[in-house]
UniProtKB/TrEMBL annotation:
Protein name (database record): Alkaline/neutral invertase
Family label: Belongs to the glycosyl hydrolase 100 family.
Organism taxonomic ancestry: Eukaryota, Viridiplantae, Streptophyta, Embryophyta, Tracheophyta
Keyword Electron transport: no
One Pfam match: Glyco_hydro_100
This enzyme's EC code(s): 3.2.1.26
A GO biological-process term: sucrose catabolic process
Amino acid sequence: MSPAGMDAAQNGSSNSIFEIEDSDFSRLLDRPRPLNIERNRSFEERSFSELSNALSPPHHFYRNTENSSRIMDHIEHSYTPSIRSGIHTPRSSYNGFEPHPMVGDAWEALRRSMVFFRGEPVGTIAALDNSAEELNYDQVFVRDFVPSALAFLMNGEPEIVKNFLLKTLRLQSWEKKVDQFKLGEGVMPASFKVIHDPVRNFETIIADFGESAIGRVAPVDSGESAIGRVAPVDSGFWWIILLRAYTKSTGDSSLAEKPECQKGIRLILNLCLSEGFDTFPTLLCADGCSMIDRRMGVYGYPIEIQALFFMALRCALLLLREEDGECKDCVERIRKRLHALSFHMRSYFWLDLKQLNDIYRFKTEEYSHTAVNKFNVMPDSLPEWVFDFMPCRGGYFIGNVSPAKMDFRWFCLGNCVAILSSLATPEQSSAIMDLIESRWDELVGEMPLKICYPAIEGHEWRIVTGCDPKNTRWSYHNGGSWPVLLWLLTAACIKTGRPQIARRAIDLAESRLVKDGWPEYYDGKLGRYIGKQSRKFQTWSIAGYLVAKMLLEDPSHMGMIALEDDRQMKSVIKRSASWTC
Ligand code: GLC
């Protein structure tokens, strides 16, 4: 899609709910979601009239303004319980939104992926299609559950999310060992699995902290060694982000206030806030510790982890009870880190045409505190493609920054989370969206959305991936297209006031996802081909689609996954200030 085409689409007629101005968005974020906690009865058992009451938004929220009443109208329609079917297939119809037939299919598939532990739903398995050799897809992955959790929260079903949060919290306190080495207390698992013992008719949970599920796969209970052995850094961050989403969505702060949850947050953050040899506020990590869980040259300070770290820190500030003596110190450390981290990221990870030109002209070997080229980056290390990729208008957070090393690749998750968490300033957020619009073919193509751009190939691929046959160019983590990323794009679009872009992306997904059996990823420069080893009925492809649809239908859901710009962090810091100050 050409930029002109996108412009036309943007200027064309739009649904009224899309015309959200900044001020409207802030209100949406503040809106308390309806309190809807019932412990013992499922939705099936409840009458529609109860649902109606439980799901109606508080009327005081949208008072007076024209926009308010528009949104109010919309909310009342979308929460009309009669639109829900008895099998939990959700509402999906109001002015202009005909329920797409896929939505019902998606809900059905999502429900089939639910995992129960002693009768209670505790998560969703990674993929329904487990016919292939790789066995780890019948596990509940923490990161994979996030879009499922959001879908359930948006549909007024918080129970599964609460159970998940509590179960994974228990796993955090396990003594975790990889070989003889004991992992930190706060590490959250990459995934867990419910094991049923038919003889004793007893269920147990087995967790994986990176020792078996990441990299290569060994059956969890086989004892066979695997080659992954990287603890997931993102799991703990997603856990905190999800706890805040649950709290925001339900209005129930009692879960987050439980002493064990408060301790869980502190343990996760202690691992990241402890002092060491590091001189940067960014978090140092190993390759394969996040969504890209294989060797892909994302070690050091990858944008995905930095953006999630920032978001988790901000969520933690909202959740920790400062009046608790134990939390006070943690809160103070979080504040300081947020300040330094936002400055560092906004200054050194940011790339736009001007910055690119500056780097191109950088002098090297500058030794003073006033150095412009603070990381001593060699202009010759700039890859050819970045000059063509960079539009006149637009910019993005690059993949990684460390001394004498910048990874200029564009990564989807990190940039979207930077927008949602307000790590990106409003100007940077707009610029990220400008870039997505101008580079639509490269980043969205025929199936949203590229995990990163561009792919690495040839000698570089051999060195960086270690000749990984799953990560060949334009496949899987190496420039493959992942439908799950649709929810993040949609959320970023809404936050920046450009929902039309999300609509276009969703249209593309709708033209293929069901037909293709909800693949995990697509291959090719345009994302035209179902991925070589792509799993079908991948749960987060399904849930990501549902979340994207629900966000567009009811942007007030944004409150659970987006944070407003924090005035405190807006204090003016000049680029030339040294990060050591
Ligand atoms: C792959 C993905 C990882 C995901 C897992 C389960 O390993 O890279 O991000 O969590 O599959 O779907």
